[in-house]
Design brief:
The complex is a heterodimer of chains A (about 525) and B (about 170). Chain A has about 525 residues and is of the alpha/beta class. Helices cover about 40% and strands about 15% of the residues of chain A. Chain A contains 18 helices and 18 strands. Chain B has about 170 residues and is an all-alpha fold. Chain B has one domain. In chain B, α1 packs antiparallel against α4. The two termini of chain B are about 20 Å apart. The chains are: A alpha/beta (about 525), B mainly alpha (about 170). Chains A and B meet through α2 and α3 of A and α1, α2, α3, α4 and α7 of B.
Chain lengths: ~525, ~170
């Protein structure tokens, strides 16, 4: 617009006179106070809104039995009770998960730290290294490492002697390599062992460790078969050792809160629980990388196959991707159902089901595996009037959650937690009619520290994080749940007591998973005989 | 703005309706700031962490850094809450209005650069409208600028008392 046009487009001058230039005192005061009535409007509406919100909130809280300002749950501690004496650990197995355990205990391979330093320099959002370095020193040393693949054993030794440690901890001179776990168990300088081998080795090593008086942290699934679960149970009870099964979800804040919600009976009668696994990547389906240096010369295949009834010739696929074969594990059942079951057992104290029916098939990964990649199992608890449904696929990534369905409300427990009232709830009927409770909105919500997990990179990691298996928050600080789970075990070794996933919980986990496996393999409904303690 | 060479001096003169339109704009922005601040103050669980973590764009690193440092985050939360309340009260009362408007503009710039509606950015919390470069922070920022250029607080507001001797 040219200045000319601008002039022309100006509207007609205002007709009202401007305020007089000379200020009248009274007018100035009136002017000064003229905007103040708005405050009246503001604070009155604020008061009305706040009182309504508070009344609604208090009514809901007192209805739920969560009245007052008390926090709904007491969270497990984040630091060791007492530092105590140095606990000397033997690491049996040093593959993928076993190395993760060592990292959580404060021992990372120098290459991993170098990689993470680079990652942090490239992306300031990547807080993995910082989170790790901030971990407390657990006052443990890795003094023995046993792995059947030389490269991994060496990696374990390098991690054990790394100078760079979290929590200002000092490095240790180094660990001894053992070719057989039995030699490691005989070592006088080892107090406790961490078992991160494939599942077919868990029971033998745990039983022998218990006999040798070594405390055990064992990865899930506790065992591969029913008989093995009985043997482990008997040995751990007889050996008087501290046994922790690797279900780190026990340390997850949202799960602890969920248990409190159940205790407060906010959901009403829970008749159906649905839990799921959805992954959609080769890694998520256990098609792990085969180490380029792996060969018959540096892998003790004979020992690997030792517990197996039917021996097969050397196979790198089987060695690195053992989760795909029943010879070594139980597929989805022991691998991922076990986590889901334990999370539900943690929250509901379900124990072993009366009946289990399972089905599925190998529909997507037709790569020679004999375990299914789509698997469903139904667990009946007639005494609890409850059914638990597990549904899993390794060929689709939709997040289906973990849902507890009660007559009065539904609770979804993942890394966060929400409770939503039921429209047809008996208990909340009046409140819903009075519009105090709105079933279209969460009744109780518990959010973990926003989107603070910056180091979840792979699809598989993302899956684990969403199921509460990687990180939790304590007092606003991000914590590795596996680290907390190991700390819980060490606390019990030093001070007595039972860890969060002790042998009783482990026995329930193993039997429940084995019932599902048996049902699938035998194509029939299986039952639990609680007197004979047998699957029938 | 107005000067003696303007052919239409009346255009720049405050009529009663113009004056009240500007005052209402000032009070409305003040009301919005004040309630944003009070809502945060009344919610013990409120923190800017979620908003800062959502940050995209050129300064995302800085905002993520604040969240990573608990002390910095606490300071930012307190400054933000009380800043909003002070700015809101000042704009509504017409008290130190120019300073309050400038402070409000600074906050709005920070909100904008923290989560700018650039081409190719998406945020996890869906916004209630559709924005391309211009969002409500930009509009409110420009409105505060207008209010600085067209001050009303000496006529309707406490500034009339404070600056009485100097300006009248």
């Amino acid at each position: 617009m040219s200045p000319e046009e601008k002039k022309q487009s100006n509207p007609a001058p205002a007709t009202e006179p401007a305020p007089p230039a000379k200020g009248v005192k009274r007018r100035t005061v009136l002017g000064a106070l003229a905007s103040l009535p708005f405050f009246g409007g503001f604070f009155y509406s604020l008061y009305v809104k706040k009182s309504m919100d508070d009344a609604r909130k208090n009514e809901i809280l007192s209805e739920l039995g969560l009245g007052g300002n008390k926090a709904p749950a007491i969270l497990p501690k984040t630091t060791l009770k007492k530092k105590g004496d140095l606990v000397r650990l033997g690491w049996i197995g040093f593959g993928g998960r076993a190395e993760d355990l060592a990292v959580s205990a404060g021992f990372a391979h120098p290459d991993l730290i170098a990689e993470q330093k680079k990652a942090a320099a490239k992306d300031p959002q990547n807080k993995w290294l910082q989170t790790w370095l901030n971990q407390q020193d657990l006052n443990v040393a890795i003094v023995g490492v046993c792995d059947l693949f030389d490269v991994r054993a060496e990696r374990g030794l390098a991690a054990a002697s790394n100078e760079e440690r979290p929590g200002g901890a000092k490095g240790f001179p180094g660990a001894k390599r053992y070719k057989r776990y039995t030699d490691l168990l005989e070592a006088k300088d080892i107090d406790a062992v961490v078992i991160g081998t494939p599942d077919h080795w868990h029971s033998r090593i745990t039983v022998d460790a218990a006999k040798a008086g070594k405390h055990v942290y064992c990865e899930k699934c506790m065992t591969r078969t029913e008989d093995e679960a009985n043997q482990v149970f008997a040995a751990v009870k007889a050996g008087n050792i501290v046994f922790q099964l690797g279900h780190q979800n026990r340390q997850q804040e949202s799960h602890v809160q969920a248990k409190e919600i159940i205790k407060a009976n906010i959901l009403g009668k829970v008749t159906l629980v649905e839990t799921t696994t959805n992954r959609n990547s080769p890694n998520g389906a256990w098609v792990y990388d085969i180490h380029p240096q792996a060969s018959e010369a540096n892998i003790d295949w004979e020992q690997f196959e030792e517990p197996c009834a039917a021996k097969v010739p050397f196979s790198k696929e089987r060695f690195f991707r053992w989760r795909c074969w029943y010879d070594y594990g139980t597929g989805l059942s022991g691998d991922l159902l076990s986590h889901e079951y334990d999370a539900v057992n943690q929250i509901l104290d379900l124990g072993i089901p009366k009946f289990v029916t399972a089905s599925g098939g190998t529909y997507f990964f037709k790569d020679g595996r004999d375990v299914p990649d789509v698997f469903q199992a139904v667990f009946e608890y007639p005494e609890r009037d409850l059914t638990l449904v597990y549904s899993a696929t390794l060929a689709n990534g939709r997040d289906r959650g973990r849902v507890f369905m009660g007559h009065d409300a539904t609770m979804e427990v993942m890394q966060s937690l929400t409770v939503t009232a039921e429209w047809e709830s008996t208990r909340y009927k009046d409140k819903i009619e009075k519009k105090v409770i709105d079933p279209s909105l969460p009744l109780v919500a518990f959010a973990q520290g926003a989107k603070g997990i910056d180091t979840v990179t792979s699809a598989t990691e993302k899956y684990f994080a969403s199921r509460g298996l990687m990180y939790t928050y304590r007092g606003g600080v991000i914590m590795d749940v596996t680290h907390l789970h190991i700390a819980d075990w060490l606390d019990c070794i030093r001070n007595g007591g039972q860890p969060a996933c002790n042998i009783d919980r482990g026995f329930e986990e193993a039997m429940t998973c084995h019932m599902a496996t048996r049902s699938f393999l035998e194509g029939r409904r299986v039952a639990w005989d609680p007197v004979a303690k047998k699957i029938v | 703005m107005s000067n003696s060479t303007s052919p239409h001096p009346d255009l720049w003169r405050y009529t009663r309706i113009k004056l009240w339109a500007l005052v209402l704009l000032r009070v409305a922005i003040g009301w919005h700031f004040l309630y944003e601040g009070i809502a945060k103050l009344l919610n013990p669980y409120w923190t800017s962490a979620g908003f800062l973590l959502e940050s995209k764009g050129p300064l995302a690193g800085l905002f993520h850094g604040i969240v990573a440092n608990p002390t910095a985050l606490r300071v930012v939360d307190i400054l933000n809450t009380w800043g909003l309340i002070a700015i809101g009260l000042a704009l509504m009362a017409g008290f130190l209005t120019r300073l309050a408007s400038l402070a409000g503009m600074v906050l709005l710039v920070l909100y904008y650069i923290c989560n700018p509606p650039l081409i190719g950015t998406t945020y996890s919390a869906p916004s209630e409208g559709a924005y391309l470069f211009v969002n409500k922070n930009v509009i409110e920022f420009l409105a505060l600028w207008v209010l600085i250029l067209f001050p009303t607080s000496k006529i309707i507001g406490l500034d009339g008392l404070i600056f009485r001797k100097k300006s009248v």
